[in-house]
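It is worth pausing here to work through a concrete case rather than discussing structure prediction in the abstract. The textbook approach is simple: state the sequence, then state the predicted structure, then interpret. We follow exactly that order.
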Amino acid sequence: MAKLLEQDKLWLQESYPCALSKFHKCEIKEALLKNLSNSSSMICNFAEYLRTMAILDAYPVKDDE
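Step two, the predicted structure:
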């Protein structure tokens, strides 16, 4: 399980390089939703959105204030 979480963390860092340090969760969610609504492959992007939200919940990120 820990190995899987580490792989997910690396995937998030590669996909959204500043996600774990710079941006607030709400900014990441907004970017993902914008990408989702602009895409022709909504199913793939929705899966990416759900995966990213799960990873964000599993790792410390700046809290929304």
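Step three, interpretation. The helical segments are 2-15, 25-37, 42-58. The chain has one domain: 2-58.
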